[in-house]
Each structure stands twice: as structure tokens, then as C-alpha cells.
Protein: Binding-protein-dependent transport systems inner membrane component
Amino acid sequence: MELLAEGIAKAVALLASLDQEVLAITLLSLKVSVTATIISLVLGILSGTLLALADFPGKRLMVSIVNTGMGLPPVVVGLFVTIFLWRNGPFGFLEILYTPTAMIIAQAVIATPIVTGITVASIQNLPANLRLQILALGATRLQMVRILIKEARLPLLAGVMAGFGGVISEVGASIMVGGNIKGYTRVLTTATVMETSRGNFDIAIALSIILLLLSFVINYVLTRIQQRERPR
Structure:
């Protein structure tokens, strides 16, 4: 308990003093995870909607693959992204390994199946005759898709929270593709692992508390938006 109390006191001190290194780490964590979440939203909602509305052989297999991807181990994602971005890999010429860009790519790969899977379930759970009613009113297929997404906005917001939660808290992929370079690719999760391995438990606890606060604030805002959108 004494160790935990020291960690909390350290977190308060770091926040109160606006420690530049901690601030930079926090901002980078937010930048990487928010960017990855936005990318996953664009890819996930588009692909999830198409998958939910399309009818083709192998659809169930595709949905099963997406659902499996929702539980992708971050370390596996980190391994394959590293291989693809390695200097001898297919995209080695981009020279973005051990950069924030590589971290964004890895986190987007983690979050996209989560958003896609939730989108598929959300669209498929809408009333079966809703599509026919929308088209009967003269809407184009594009307008129908927009209306369906709007109708499924509440579970989709849950998808946003799930996607963001999945990437802000992951550490394996970030270390593998980012390298935990001080002042460049070090984020809250990788810094916490490093300080723990050094035995600096007070700093590790402080960073963990900051990470929890950051995650809470983002999810609180999204929850407020979700609750405001609920039909009364």
C-alpha cells in the first residue's frame, strides 16, 4: 500500500509540475491512439457496412475472420508490421520503422477489426425491413447506407470506445514497431513497462494513473455523446 501511495503522490506531483517529458509522452500517446482510431473508424465502418449489406458466397467465413481479428494479439500485429516495414521487407523503402507513423499503422491494424466487427453486428441487428422502407421512399443506395449508419450510431459509438480502448492500452506492438525511443516514440504504456523493469515502481504507477485518467476522460466524453443520442 505504501508503494501505491507513493505512486499516486508521484502522479500528482508530475501532473502539478507539468513535467515536460511526461507531457510529451502523454501527448504522443494521445496523438498516436486517436489517429489510429480515426483511421480504423473510416476503414472499419466502410468495410463493416459493405460486409453487412452484401450477399456473396463465403460471407459467413469473412465475418468469422473479422470476428477473429477482433482478438488479434498486439504482439502478433507488431511482428508482422515490423516484417513488412523492415528494411528488406515489402515496404522497407518507406523507412518508417521505429517512428510514430509505424505505431499508428500497427494500432490501426489492431483497432480496425474491432470497429468492423461491431459495425457488421450493428447493421445486421437493424430491422430487416428497414432497408426496403428506405428504398421505397425513393432513397438511393448511398443515401440508404448513410441512414443505416445513422440508425446504428449508438452501437457504433461503442465501437469507437472499444477501438480506442484497445489501442491506448496496448504495449507489445508499440514497442516492436516504435522501439520506445526517448523523446520520439515513447508512449505511456511503453514507458510504464520500462520503468517497471528498472524497478522504478513509483514512476510506473504514476504513468499508469495518468494513462487511466486519459482513457477515462476520452471514454467519458464518448459516453456522454452516446447517452445524449439515445432515444427518450
Q: What stands out?
A: The mean pLDDT is 89. The domain at 2-229 is CATH 1.10.3720.10 (MetI-like fold).
